[in-house]
Amino acid sequence: MAAQPPSGAWESVDGPILPYARQSISPDDVRAVADTVASDWLTQGPKISAFEAAMAERCGAKFAVAVASGTAGLHLGAIALGLAPGKRLWTSPNTFVASANCGRYCGATVDFVDIDPATLNLGIDALRKKLETARAENRLPDVVVPVHFSGRPCEMAAIGALAKTFGFAVMEDAAHAVGATDEAAPVGACRHSDLTVFSFHPVKILTAGEGGMILTNRADLYERLAELRSHGITRDPSRMIGPSDGPWYYEQLGLGFHYRITDIQCALGLSQMKRLDAFLARRRELAARYDRLLDGLPVVRPALDRLDDSSWHLYVIRIPATAAARADVFGRLQADGIGVNVHYIPVHTQPSYRELGFAGGDFREAERYYAEAISLPMFAALTDRDQARVAERLGRALA
Ligand SMILES: *Cc1c(COP(=O)(O)O)cnc(C)c1O
Predict the structure, then answer these.
(1) How far is the CA of 95 from the centre of ligand 1 (A)?
(2) Burial code of 286-306, b = ≥16 C-beta within 10 A, e = fewer?
(3) Is residue 11's pLDDT more than 60?
């Protein structure tokens, strides 16, 4: 990961490398964290439930469970949806490994659905075809994990319709998509899914330092998730198997984890939420501005058809093999102080997935896309001046 210079270093790009993504911390954020550190509750206090309530309200979901990371959220979601040995999870190959690993933690079998090159999300036609084949072979998935890659929402109504027809659960990996909308509903409303999982890692839209949140409208899942994040323990007498021995009594109902988040982290997340709309507006503005700045360069720019629906976690361009070698362009930009990145190495080509039998060539669209992709700097605090410099340096790197 690129070295991160201190806040406020963005007036100038002449010094440290411009990162591809970065948190934006305000004096109010600092105060909120300091106040919490000085309060009675460092963890398991009022900030956690306040953050959960604020996010549930913002998304229009009934329940929210804050956890230690997005990955912890995906793991608990996978368990709550019943993944276990003999069960199957399908996801996109164009994602961070966590979207697939959550199935493997449960002993489930993981498979992938190739992407639609126009959206870079799991392809709806590819999903339908794979489901038809799987039905004929009696190998239908139990859980499908669509990933809102770069913040561009998947077509959830279509996925939800397939879920009904073919009988699988849906867990949205919305690590990139806090604040994105699909058909005028916030991602996280879970209109067409069972669960939605957010991440609050510093590179994402909002940060809590580390952290994650699971949204759902299902009370049964909510209760399971809340127990699973804390060792499988309940203190609610109505959930207990036996009679309570007294006020100290708790029961461990199943095998859970310590996946809790802290009040300190939630104080930051809650404070950041006040600027969520400003973050989104700035990211959308930067995406539209990149589109103009890069016009005329031999690169494929992201589609702007969902400009205002996407949360624009990433701005990914593609360098067609005919224009220049991606690695050369990447190297020149890095040497020029532009902290580019690549999202994502197709998960099925990772050694840990090749061991399971996957091979290069299995998901050709994801692989073709990967060979051409570069993520340019994109974060709310990116200045117009720095962005213009990225475009200018890209032009030079391509020349
Ligand atoms: C960041 C990310 C995760 C994991 O989130 P953490 O909070 O880092 O555990 C999962 N999926 C995707 C697509 C991500 O980008």
Answers:
(1) 9
(2) bbeebeebbeebebbbbeeeb
(3) no
